[in-house]
Design goal:
It is a single chain. The protein has a single domain, classed as Rossmann fold. The chain contains nine helices and seven strands. It has helices at about 35-45, 60-70, 85-95, 120-145, 170-190, 210-215, 215-220, 225-235, 245-255, and strands spanning about 25-30, 50-55, 75-80, 100-105, 155-160, 195-205, 270. Strands 3-2-1-4-5-6-7 form a seven-stranded parallel beta sheet, with helices on both faces.
């Protein structure tokens, strides 16, 4: 593994004093088994929310649950196939039994690197279902609960990417889903009347297993070394020559959930080291 997922240390988490950050309020986090999803689940638990983590990987999900609890937080893990509507519906139903659903973080994602002319449609269908359809369905299911809360408010975070702003070669499905998540956040916010709001977070490459897994394919398709993929492809246009850590991304989501972000309505938090807007 060339990119190792860093450990989450207790002093790295953004802690916000927020009246709605209590264990009476539920925060659902998808992809909670690894990477950004794991970090977000732990950060939300440390901010005193009742976290419900969803992932198909039960072993890793249980590790996240234990870590969150070791830090003094509350978390319940529910093994969930986000490509199965029944699983999603069951997860939301179970989450609603633990408190008032107020927050949703759609983070789960996969990657497949291939040119459009060679891209397997079954892989596109999987990525679309997991990374765009599931966030829409989850949003559809949780919004009625949010509207029933005492202040009728709720927040939905969608994990986009610099690939929701610019498109790089051989990632058509990823590009499409990340652009789509920005549209989903804006659609939710357009209908939310200022009370149900949504936002996206767009980062460059983050130190996660997802980033590590694509190095081999990038090297083969571009005809360069794995080291060159990291240096010239992943970090090539970034002015900051170091990948973000999962907890740094999770902190942005926590900020977006808080009252300090009440004007973040359909907006995007672009933390990309300068990849998109500097030349």
């Amino acid at each position: 593994m060339l990119i190792k997922e860093p450990e989450i240390y207790s002093d790295e988490t953004l802690i916000i004093k927020e009246k709605n950050f209590t264990t009476a309020n539920v925060c659902i986090v998808t992809g909670s088994g690894t990477g950004i999803g794991r970090a977000t689940a732990i950060a939300a638990a440390k901010n005193q929310l009742m976290v419900v983590g969803l992932d198909i990987n039960e072993e890793e999900g249980r590790i996240t649950q234990k870590t969150a609890r070791d830090y003094g937080g509350q978390m319940v893990f529910i093994k969930t196939d986000l490509c199965d509507d029944n699983d999603i519906q069951n997860a939301v139903k179970e989450a609603s039994k633990l408190g008032q659903i107020k927050y949703l973080a759609n983070i789960a994602g996969i990657q497949h690197v291939n040119a459009i002319e060679d891209f397997p449609m079954e892989k596109y269908d999987l990525m679309h279902r997991l990374m765009l359809r599931a966030p829409l369905l989850l949003s559809k299911l949780v919004i009625p609960y949010m509207k029933k809360s005492s202040d009728e408010k709720g927040v939905i975070a969608n994990m986009s990417s610099i690939h929701g702003h610019i498109c790089t070669m051989n990632k058509p499905a990823y590009n499409i889903t990340k652009f789509g998540l920005r549209a989903l956040s804006q659609s939710i916010s357009a209908e939310g009347k200022g009370k149900i709001r949504s936002f996206t977070v767009s980062t460059g490459f983050v130190k996660t297993p997802l980033a590590d897994k694509q190095i081999d394919a990038q090297a083969e398709q571009r005809g360069i070394s794995k080291e060159d993929v990291i240096k010239n492809v992943m970090m090539g246009t970034s002015r900051v020559k170091e990948m973000m850590t999962p907890i740094e991304v999770a902190n942005l989501i926590i900020f977006g959930f808080s009252q300090h972000a009440k004007y973040l309505v359909g907006g995007d938090l672009l933390f990309d080291g300068g990849c998109v807007l500097t030349y």
